[in-house]
Design brief:
single chain, mainly alpha, 434 Repressor (Amino-terminal Domain)
Length: 159
């Protein structure tokens, strides 16, 4: 059986989705200009912010990497790759599990991990600022804690 969708049907479906984040697999337009929409590729910066966010959330909760991996039901080696390698591409399931564990919206975390298109350039810029302000050290400084709390509020804000 072959299923065909007309342009008008596709437009109607898109209107019904509104601003909802919809994604599967890699971003549809990773860079350049598509369909008259200018897209800036923040992927590597966002993944750096994602890794820093995960590491700081873990440290803020005074958890070892092993404990977080166990609690989130993810592979320890993947968690370490996320925290230490800004070029690592996490599995969507892993990001979903971390979002549930940290109680933050999975859509925003998917954007940070480079698994969904960032529709809000301001969010991407704030993520880069967060990464720049969150130097990795043994104990969270007040500035890091403040940056983390501000970023959690940003991620959790409804769009």
């Amino acid at each position: 059986m072959k299923f065909e969708l007309t342009r008008e049907q596709a437009r109607k479906i898109a209107r019904l989705e509104g601003d909802a984040v919809v994604g599967a697999g890699s971003p549809a337009f990773p860079e350049g200009e598509q369909a008259g929409i200018s897209v800036v590729d923040f992927t590597s910066e966002l993944r750096l912010a994602f890794g820093r966010f995960v590491a700081l959330m873990r440290r803020n909760r005074r958890m070892t990497a092993e404990k977080l991996a166990d609690q989130a039901d993810i592979d320890l080696s993947e968690l370490l790759s996320i925290e230490q390698d800004p070029h690592y591409v996490p599995e969507p399931r892993t990001v979903y599990q971390l979002a549930n564990c940290f109680k933050v919206p999975e859509g925003r975390l998917m954007e940070l991990a480079g698994l969904a298109i960032v529709r809000d350039v301001g969010f991407a810029q704030e993520a880069v600022r967060f990464a720049a302000r969150s130097e990795s050290i043994a104990k969270l400084t007040e500035e890091e804690r403040s940056a983390l709390e501000e970023f959690i509020t940003l991620i959790s804000s409804a769009k």
